[in-house]
Amino acid sequence: MPWQPLRLPEDQAPPRPLAVRVQSLPAHHHFPEHRHPWHQFVYASSGVLTVTAAGQCFVIAPQQAVWVPAGLPHRTASLLGAEFRSLYVDAQALAGPQGQCTLLAVTPFLRALILEAGELLPADPAGPPTPAATDEEARHLTALILARLARLQPLPASLPWPQAAGLGEMCEALYANPTDERDLAAWAAQLHQSGRTLSRHFQRETGMTLRAWRQRLRLFKAVELLAGGQDVTQVALALGYASPSAFTAMFRQTMGQRPSAYRQQMREMR
C-alpha cells in the first residue's frame, strides 16, 4: 500500500501559549517534512507514530512522545493509523530540550491532561475555550500541562539515521523490509564499497554497527506492529524471526515484558 501525504495546517495561529492538534491519521499516511516557529510535543493517544528529524527516527506508542524544537524540520507518519493528540507550545513559554528531537516518557497523568485538553481547549488558540470550559479552567489546564512537560526526562531510544549517500537508501530498504537478510558484504557490493569502508562509514554516522542498528530497527518495528494490533506470530514473521519464541526472547530481553503483554497493554489503552 503506497504512502499518502496529509495536508499540513494552513494559516495556523501561533499557540498562546499552548494549543492541541486533534486528528485521526489513517494507515499509511504521513505529514511531509515541515517546520514551525513553535515547539511540538508529538503524541498519539492510540496507535503508533514514526517521527523523523535531524538524522534520528523515533517510533512512539502512547507511553512516549517526541519533543520537536521550534524551527527543526521533521516529518510524522503512521503505518497502521493513530489518534494524533499533539501539543504546540510557544517557544517563549517553555524552553524544553533544545537543538534536537528528544524521546520523552508520557505518564498516565500527563496522558489524561492531554486528552482533557483535546476536549476543552480551542482548536484555534486565538479563539475562546470550548463551551465546556471557562477561561479560568483553560488557564489552569494549560499551566498544569506546561508544568508537567517541564519535568519530563529524556529517554535514550532513537534510531540514528545516516545521511551519507547510499547509507540512507540502505536503511530505507531495511526499514521497509526488516526480513532482508543481506549481510554487510552484500550491501557493500551493492554500494560499490569495501565491507571495511561501509562498516566504518556506518558506525561514524550512527554510532552503531550495522548489526546493532538492525536489531534496534526490528525492536522499533515490533513496537509499531504490536501496538497496531498484530499478534505475536504475525510480528515475528514480518520481522524475519525463525520462530515466535525467538522473537519473544528478544523482545522480553530489551523491553522487560513479553510481546503479548505489551500488545494487551496497548489494546487496553485504545
Give the topology:
Elements: E1 4-5, E2 18-25, E3 29-34, E4 39-42, E5 44-47, E6 49-53, E7 56-60, E8 64-68, E9 74-78, E10 82-89, E11 102-105, H1 108-120, H2 135-150, E12 154-155, E13 159-160, H3 167-176, H4 184-190, H5 195-206, H6 210-227, H7 232-238, H8 244-255, H9 259-269
Parallel strand pairs: 1-3
Antiparallel strand pairs: 2-10, 3-9, 4-8, 4-10, 5-10, 6-7, 6-9, 7-13, 8-11, 11-12
Helix pairs in contact: 1-2, 4-5, 6-9, 7-8
Instruction: Tell me the radius of gyration.
Output: 20 Å
Uncertain runs: none
CATH superfamily of the largest domain: Regulatory protein AraC
Q: From the helix content, strand content and strand pairing, which structural class follows?
A: alpha+beta
Q: Domains counted in the coordinates: how many?
A: 2
The total of helices stands at 9
Largest beta-sheet details: 7 strands, antiparallel
**How many strands?**
13
Can you write the helix and strand succession as a string?
A: EEEEEEEEEEEHHEEHHHHHHH
Oligomeric grouping of the chains: single chain
CATH-defined architecture of the largest domain: Sandwich
Determine the fraction of residues in helical runs and give it as a percent range.
Answer: 25-40%
Give average pLDDT, whole number. 85
Q: Which CATH class of the largest domain is shown?
A: Mainly Beta
Q: Compute the separation of the termini in Å.
A: 24 Å
* Portion in beta strands: 15-25%
Shape: globular
Q: Return the CATH topology of the largest domain.
A: Jelly Rolls
